[in-house]
Design goal:
Elements lengths: L1 E5 L8 E5 L6 E3 L6 E3 L3 H11 L16
Antiparallel strand pairs: 1-2, 3-4
Amino acid sequence: MVFAVQCPEARCRKFMLVEEHDRGKIVPCLICKTPIRVGDSASNSSAERQDRPELSPKIRPVGKYAQ
């Protein structure tokens, strides 16, 4: 299985695909060669949930997007 990781370098920020066997390893960015630590699936998903606030069901689109 492949999945995407993003380069942490501020001037690069490119996405690249890495293989399942690279989880837990450090791989170089294909563009700028900055080392990228490829995380575990469990730690990535929990960290991703903490960074992304959940939308409240009370929030509704307004303007031309409202239905």
